[in-house]
């Protein structure tokens, strides 16, 4: 179900209250791809074959807990049913085409998706946990001014199998399927390429597999959706998941936010915070949303911005995560100095907020936050515009 069209926020709004997309079928073979089906969809699939619903959990365990994608190796399924499955179904995951390991132990893998684009996922090991940063789209239509993915333009939504396939591959590569009591990936953040809430149905289905006991069994606290603020999608989130949420705010007022996060013109800060609060209220627990703030030198890192942020969020229970800007080739922005990071943090802490500063990981393999670019066949022609602008700037600075 990759789409070649440019997806805009309004395209996602039209999915309001619609039932979630049905499972994918391979365009090449016409067979149902069981790798991209949640427990509910797999049960429906087995019902159409006249089989008992418990088959769904059996198959999910084979694929997502044991890493087995050959029907004939599924030994608790009868031979006639295995043969039937080979006829009508398949288990197709994306291919890993590049594999990098950072000096700090992080990994970056690049997968090729059906549209032909290449997208990236990153695994970051820390003491006591391992976080996988998962992509949801090839490119992104939202064009935030500081984001390498945005500069690539938008190519396609990833299918469910392409999203969950990233977690499958991370387990496969890190030895997480066989004979382990603790899996290497303990946390998933939807902070790779793309805006997850603009690929709503596929991301919801993939997240349900991440949290499903007979698949990856991650708790709702350990799966985080990061969004730049697609308000209509946040409004309907509670009907589909109870995963954790991070909000990419990056500015304390609408004027500045609209400059660096263009979707703010459509869904301004007050509307966004109200929508997120509605979701948090629906969760009925003590979790807090994370406010992400990419700190960019000379743009949003003044002391006054920190003070304004402290006031803005005073009635909005949250944690704040500062992400120092990670430079990339097509950007003129600079990383803030460590003094300005410290000052920014201190002002917020003194105002009573819990603040973390994200340490930069894996930038030696181009896998730090916001550096993920893959190789996206841009449908929006944005990448060539950015490249032309960049070349003009270089030419003019060389000339003068
Ligand atoms: N589209 C979603 C998720 C992907 S971006 C979102 O915007 O939230 C994941 C995080 O990386 C976001 O908080 C984003 O603002 C941040 N980010 C993007 N580019 C960055 C850069 N160059 N340096 C640091 N953080 C960046
Ligand atoms: Fe898209 Fe997120 Fe990058 Fe903005 S920061 S362009 S929403 S991926």
Structural features:
400 residues; 10-stranded mixed beta sheet; binds iron/sulfur cluster; 14 strands; binds S-adenosyl-L-homocysteine; alpha/beta; single chain; two-stranded parallel sheet; disordered N terminus
Walkthrough of the structure:
- The protein has 400 residues and is of the alpha/beta class.
- The protein is built from 13 helices and 14 strands.
- The protein has a ten-stranded mixed sheet, covered by helices on one side. The protein has a two-stranded parallel ribbon with strand order 1-2. Strands 7-8 form a two-stranded antiparallel sheet.
- Strand 13, helix 12 (338-350) and strand 14 form a beta-alpha-beta unit.
- Helix 6 (160-173) packs parallel to helix 7 (200-211) and helix 11 (303-312) packs parallel to helix 12.
- It is globular, with a radius of gyration of 21 Å.
- The chain binds S-adenosyl-L-homocysteine and iron/sulfur cluster.
- Residues 140, 142-144, 147, 149-150, 194-195, 228, 248 line the site of iron/sulfur cluster.
Helix-strand blueprint:
Blueprint: H1 9-13, E1 32-33, H2 39-48, H3 54-65, H4 79-88, E2 89-90, E3 95-101, E4 107-112, E5 118-126, E6 129-133, E7 137-139, H5 148-151, E8 154-157, H6 160-173, E9 187-190, H7 200-211, E10 223-227, H8 231-237, E11 244-248, H9 254-260, H10 269-283, E12 290-295, H11 303-312, E13 319-324, H12 338-350, E14 355-357, H13 382-399
Parallel strand pairs: 1-2, 6-9, 9-10, 10-11, 11-12, 12-13, 13-14
Antiparallel strand pairs: 3-4, 4-5, 5-6, 7-8
S-adenosyl-L-homocysteine is lined by residues 146-148, 191, 195, 226-228, 248, 292, 294, 323, 325-326, 369-370.
